[in-house]
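Quick one:
INPUT:
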């Protein structure tokens, strides 16, 4: 990073700046400029490695691409300033960089229409994974609250954004959920919530421990609430009690919830491994 890098139009660029990028006009056949973030400047591919190579001028650049919505789906998008982030990079010739532009997350823009009135301003709030051809939500890591403080601090110090499926976002951004029995953090896959008192418990912390989440449509109540409910039934306070889920017989295999437990487990593992896993040069951390 020792040499300042200038584009042909005079713009000085540095790592993490956003740029328009395209091959020369005849090769690119009229397609619009691509937008990318500069991840690193690189010497020629045949430059010697190590100290000696440091005297070579940068001729290449590693770019993190953004997609335009029309690149990834047929869904019409009227907003030409909306991009999709991606965890996808390529090394390009530095001469393909045309000019600087600006790309920020939607949540960092207080006045979106003002932002869009200025030239060369783009924004994103979703990420496209080109390997599995799927879109994810991108939220500032600050917004993730349902994590133990230690993990949350590391997450925020390392990553600007968290990438997750839409269905996971409400769990991630809820206030931190602690087990009412052991006071430990309750990651969603290992957690049941009492239907009546709304408190959370680890599935292993209730008696008897739950082997699987209750099937969809069946509520679960904690022991104190169940006792209270039974007393109410006994005293005829409730004439039409809601059905309680059938208890699994001890030597039968535990019923499996319908809620994709295998995937949930891998989510828990990822969350637990959070402090040691990270991607170099990327602001995004996949969740789930
Ligand atoms: Zn617990
Ligand atoms: Zn309860």
């Amino acid at each position: 990073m020792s040499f300042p890098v200038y584009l042909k139009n005079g713009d000085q660029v540095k790592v993490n700046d956003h740029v328009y990028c395209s091959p020369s006009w005849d090769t690119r056949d009229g397609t619009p400029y691509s937008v990318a973030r500069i991840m690193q400047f690189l010497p020629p591919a045949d430059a010697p490695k190590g100290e000696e190579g440091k005297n070579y001028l940068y001729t290449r650049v590693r770019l993190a691409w953004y997609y335009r919505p029309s690149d990834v789906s047929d869904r019409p998008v009227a907003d030409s300033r909306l991009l999709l982030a991606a965890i996808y990079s390529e090394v390009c010739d530095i001469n393909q960089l045309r000019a600087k532009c600006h790309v920020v997350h939607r949540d960092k823009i207080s006045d979106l229409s003002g932002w869009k009135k200025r030239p060369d301003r783009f924004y994103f709030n979703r990420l496209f994974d080109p390997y599995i051809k799927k879109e994810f939500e991108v939220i500032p890591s600050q917004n993730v609250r349902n994590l133990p403080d230690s993990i949350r601090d590391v997450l925020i110090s390392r990553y600007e954004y968290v990438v997750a499926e839409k269905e996971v976002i409400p769990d991630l951004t809820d206030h931190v959920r602690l087990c009412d029995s052991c006071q430990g953090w309750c990651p969603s896959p290992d957690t049941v919530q009492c239907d009546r008192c709304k408190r959370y418990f680890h599935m292993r912390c209730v008696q008897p421990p739950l082997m699987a989440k209750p099937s969809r449509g069946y509520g679960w109540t904690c022991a104190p609430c169940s006792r209270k409910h039974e007393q109410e039934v006994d005293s005829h306070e409730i004439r039409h009690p809601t059905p309680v889920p059938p208890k699994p017989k001890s030597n039968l295999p535990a019923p499996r919830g319908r809620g994709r437990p295998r995937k949930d487990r891998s989510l828990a593992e990822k969350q637990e491994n959070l402090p040691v896993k990270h991607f170099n040069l990327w602001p995004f951390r996949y969740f789930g």
